[in-house]
Structures are given as structure tokens and as C-alpha cells.
Write a sequence for this structure.
């Protein structure tokens, strides 16, 4: 594990915000599709961030984990800790993609996606609380 840096985290946040702004300006955008794309972008951002943390072992990006603790536990424990987070957020992103695709094909309200996405983000986040380093 290299030295402590939050550059990747900040860059990922800038990209995420740029994507959200880009969605608002897509030609022919309408409310249902815009909300779906926003929720999917959020779900995949969280999965992508978790994937990055897993690959780089920068687990100190997670709340409650210090850089010093991360260095002290060793690579195997960092990878396992990060993988468990990635798995939760990755499954959430996959489920959200299936749900949103089905809702778009059926022509149902994007408020279903918004509700499911909001509950899903909260549930995934709460599911990571018991994960200990």
C-alpha cells in the first residue's frame, strides 16, 4: 500500500458529478429516463468506488478506518475488507440495473426506481456496518 492520498476519491467524485450534469443535458431527456439514469449512475458509482478501493486497498476511504489501521492489518485483510464492501455495492448495482431496465421497458414510473434506489443505497450502506477490519 502506497502513501495516503485522497486524489482518486476526489477525481471519482468530480467524474460522478460531471456524469450527473451530463444526464441533465442529454438531448431528448425526459423525467422518467433522467431519474433512472441518475439512480443507475449513483448505483454504479458506488460499485465502482468500492471496486477501486478493493483494487488499490485504500480502505481508509471508508468511514471509521484510518490509514494507520489499514497499513497495520496487512494486504490480505485489506483486500478481504474491501471485497466484502464491493460485493454488496456490486450486487446492488446489478439489481438496480435489472429493475430499472424492466421498469423502462414496461413504461412504469421512475419513482419506483427512485424509491428502490434510495432504499437500496441505504440498505447496502447499513449492510456494510458490521464489516470489521
Amino acid at each position: 500500500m502506497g502513501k495516503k492520498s485522497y486524489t482518486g476519491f476526489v477525481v471519482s467524485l468530480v467524474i460522478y458529478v460531471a456524469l450527473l450534469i451530463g444526464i441533465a443535458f442529454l438531448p431528448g431527456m425526459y423525467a422518467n429516463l433522467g431519474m433512472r439514469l441518475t439512480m443507475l449512475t449513483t448505483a454504479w458509482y458506488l460499485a465502482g468506488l468500492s471496486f477501486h478501493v478493493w483494487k488499490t486497498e485504500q480502505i481508509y476511504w471508508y468511514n471509521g478506518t484510518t490509514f494507520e489501521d489499514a497499513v497495520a492489518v496487512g494486504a490480505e485483510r485489506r483486500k478481504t475488507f474491501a471485497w466484502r464492501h464491493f460485493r454488496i455495492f456490486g450486487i446492488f448495482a446489478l439489481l438496480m440495473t435489472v429493475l430499472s431496465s424492466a421498469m423502462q421497458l414496461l413504461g412504469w414510473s421512475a419513482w419506483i426506481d427512485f424509491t428502490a434506489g434510495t432504499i437500496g443505497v441505504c440498505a447496502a450502506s447499513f449492510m456494510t456496518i458490521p464489516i470489521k477490519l
Residues 100 and 106 are 10 Å apart (CA to CA). Helices lie at 7-24, 31-56, 67-73, 75-106, 110-128. The mean pLDDT is 93.
